[in-house]
Amino acid sequence: MATKVFMEALSPTMEEGRLVKWHKQEGDAVKAGETLAEVETDKAVMDLIARADGVLRQVAVTEGQTVPVGSVVAVIAAPGESVGSPVTTPAAVTSGSGKAETGNVGVASTSAPVAVAPAQAVSGADTSRVKASPLAKRIAKEAGVDLKRVTGSGPGGRVVRRDLEAAGRGEQGEVRSVAASAAVQRSEPLPSPVSPVAARSGGAYEDVPLTQIRKTIAKRLVTSLGPVPHFFLTSEVDMERAAEARDALNPQLGDRGKVSFNDIIVKATALALTKHRACNAWFQEDHIRYWNEVHLGMAVAVEDGLITPVIRNADLKPLLEIGQEAKQLADKARSRRLQPSEYTGSTFSVSNLGMFDIDQFTAVINPPEAGILAVGTITPKPVVVDGQVVPRRRLRLTMSCDHRVIDGATGAAFLKTLKEMLENPLAMLL
Amino acid sequence: MPTLTYRDALNQALREEMQRDANVFLMGEEVGVYQGAYKVSRGLLEEFGPMRVVDTPIAELGFAGIGVGAAMVGLRPVIEFMTWNFAVLALDQIVNSAAKLLYESGGQLPIPIVFRGPNGAALQLGAQHSQAWESWLSHIPGLKVVAPATPADAKGLLKSAIRDNNPVIVLEGEMLYNTKGEVPEGEYVVPIGRADVKRAGRDVTLICHSKTVTVALKAAEQLAEQEGVSAEVVDLRSLRPLDEAAITASVAKTNRAVVVEEGWPHCGIGAQVVDVIQREAFDHLDAPVLRVTQADVPMPYNRQLERLAKPSPDKVVAAARRVLYLD
Predict the structure, then answer these.
(1) Which residues, other chains included, contact A127 with Cβ-Cβ below 8 Å and sequence gap of 6+?
(2) Cβ(A18)–Cβ(A79) under 8 Å?
(3) Do residue A278 and residue A395 come from a single domain?
(4) To the nearest whole angstrom, how far is the Cα of A159 from the nearest Cα of chain B?
């Protein structure tokens, strides 16, 4: 019996996917679990996995083409099996971006050569009806999630709301297994699909189509600074003692790694949040969710945009572990290898532009989080200590607060605790 | 705000309405000299005299019919049945006269009458005297049916019932008469057809009325303590007309519902509520709606069996756990 291959929702927010590369060609034998193709989601490049054994037939999407989640991209049939009429070519959703990258995608976008009786395209295929509650169906439809990919936990395998929520958090079994298999197989970083370098010749300007990640950034950020009422609190922190602590620790660590200022800031932020739960919160439609766990998002610049991998339970992890994890996540982000479970679910975020010599800046809140900390560069400044002007290493922290959750004094109290911890690292032990 | 028993809240409503409108009168078995089998009419004979507080023979069909006749000529009778189990004898007057005359007279004969009395099981009264009649009565077009659970609702709904120009059935409860609650003084009416959220919650809606409101509230407490589940308790208060908007709004919020009633399951009030939910809140449902009812048997006389046959907080908690997929 033939099995349709769908463009699957490989990230919680994915609505469409660009087929980067087919690993199997028309007529190739495939086994369930093998990688059929690489798909660029709004966040990363993921593997599309075969869900049946057989022969790949009726490949309907060419490399570079972008199609909506849920579209049939091919069929897996038994050798020699008749699969009826070819599948309908899915409507290309962004022919522009395809064109910019491969130059030959016109083929697939509008010609739609094989639209014959789509209803019976693969007759007899995939007769298993997905059992889902009406609510789960509605949520899945709105989120563009293919219910076939979600394992139901209700009676008789019924998909219910909590299964979709779990899938969204990357906890759901099947979603995670797909993600995990993608991580194993690649070692070389993929090229970024579009490098927005300056136009070399020709016209006065160049229109660069939005990549998936840029589209997501655009979509996400206008849900933040516009609707979310931001306000900003800045505090200057004396980093002398943190620097002394770091200088004392690092020689002892030897080849076990190094502690960076960023690691200390992340750890202190997480600890300060445990004392100020009011800032470790999500604004939701009709309630505020105060988190008892601290999952710190860490903004990482990647070639094409930025992404916020998450250090989970950062308050509980030793400095060295935070440092190692931060480095691994940043490397994965830059090579576009992050799995959905690694960039979702943060409760507060930190953005550090210190390495770019930025004195201070204001960061845009990552909804539904209620706050983000913008970290500037550490720089020596003349300050007055005990009536004497002396040079001290100073750091400017700016917290953006969602005023619907955090009031001025609330944010200020958190920032004060954080400042105390950084100025006297022993306070982190309290 | 004064705290009154359910019984005294009804008494207050009767007294205030009889003071307010000379056409209002009370009639039934033992309502006068004996001051009511459950003392709801205490002091009324003394205040209003035997023309307006009328003791009747044990003849339900007869005095129900006298009431309908009085309503046809412009009076506003309140007919008390000692219990609704006895009112079965009067169903012909209620269903065939009171409910039909406005329709059959082409709108010429409104019947502003109230039929009231205790409904449902009390304790060990046996199968014939332990029945919940709301699904029978709510079935009939031409009747309105209310079933207040608290003293305040009892006062407010009885006043609305007396002022309504249609026949209104007021279902009270023998086990409710002694319950206490705050009751607003003076002019306080609860509109017919409005449900009331007796406890707000997020995770599951418990829909109930009359005595089962207490059952649902206890279940909600258990759910909060034992499961950390936030249950919303919606008291229907009126069974016809039914507050479909309130039911739908709550289920849209919680995505799950359990309907609790004293009656039997087959063609019960809960069946009607489930119909509303599947029709109006289909896309909000995360689980099938479950019902908790009396067991589908005549009420046992044996105390333990009777307890097992009735809806209980434990049964409601068990149903809520199922719709929450906690089992």
Answers:
(1) A1
(2) no
(3) yes
(4) 9
Q: How far apart are CA B133 and CA B171, in angstroms?
A: 9
Which among A137, A153, A161 has CB closest to B255? A161
Q: What is the mean pLDDT of residues A238-242?
A: 91
**Is the ipTM above a cut-off of 0.85?**
no
How far, rounded to the nearest angstrom, does the alpha carbon of residue B250 sit from its chain's CA centroid?
A: 21
**A260 with A402, same domain?**
yes
d(CA B58, CA A164): 63
- Report pLDDT digits (tens) over B13-51: 999 999 999 999 999 999 999 999 999 999 999 999 999
Q: Is the dihedral of CA A344, A169, A339, A35 positive or negative?
A: negative
Please report the domains of chain B, with CATH numbers, ordered by start residue.
Answer: 3-182 (3.40.50.970), 196-323 (3.40.50.920)
Phi/psi for A417 (5° steps) reads -60, -45
A287 tagged catalytic:
no
Q: Give chain A's domain count.
A: 2
CATH number for the domain harbouring residue A250: 3.30.559.10
> Scanning every residue of chain A, which has its alpha carbon at the shortest distance from the alpha carbon of B279?
A134
CA A331 to chain CA centroid, Å, is: 14
* Intra-chain end-to-end CA distance of chain A, in Å: 64
Contacts of A292 in chain B (CB under 8 A): none
pTM for this prediction:
0.53
Counting runs of H as helices and runs of E as strands, what totals does chain A give?
11, 19
* Chain B residues with beta carbon closer than 8 angstroms to that of A133: 285-287
What DSSP element (H or E) covers B239?
A: strand B238-240
In-domain check, residue A272: yes
In chain B the first and final C-alpha atoms are separated, in Å, by 43
Transcribe B148-195 into DSSP letters: --SHHHHHHHHHHHHH-SS-EEEEE-TTTTT-EEE---SS----TT--
Model pLDDT, residue B280: 93
What dihedral angle (degrees, nearest 10) is formed by the CA atoms of B27, B28, B29, B30?
-40
Spatial CA neighbour of A319 closest among A233, A428, A409: A428
How far apart CA A24 and CA A48 sit, in angstroms, is 11
Which residue range is the domain that position A109 belongs to? 3-125
Tokens matching residue B11? 């008494």
Least confident of A329-338, B38-47, B175-184: A329-338
DSSP structure string for B57-122: -S-HHHHHHHHHHHHHTT-EEEEEPS-HHHHGGGHIIIIIIITTHHHHTTTS-----EEEEE-S--
| Tokens of residue B320, six digits | 């809520």
Is the CB of residue A165 less than 8 Å away from at least one CB of chain B? Answer: no
3-state secondary structure A177-228: HHHHHHHHHCCCCCCCCCCCCCCCCCCCCCCCCCCHHHHHHHHHHCCCCCCC
Confidence of residue B243 (pLDDT cuts 50, 70, 90): very high
Strand-pair category, A72-77 with A66-68: unpaired
pLDDT in tens, B186-231: 899 999 999 999 999 999 999 999 999 999 999 999 999 998 999 9
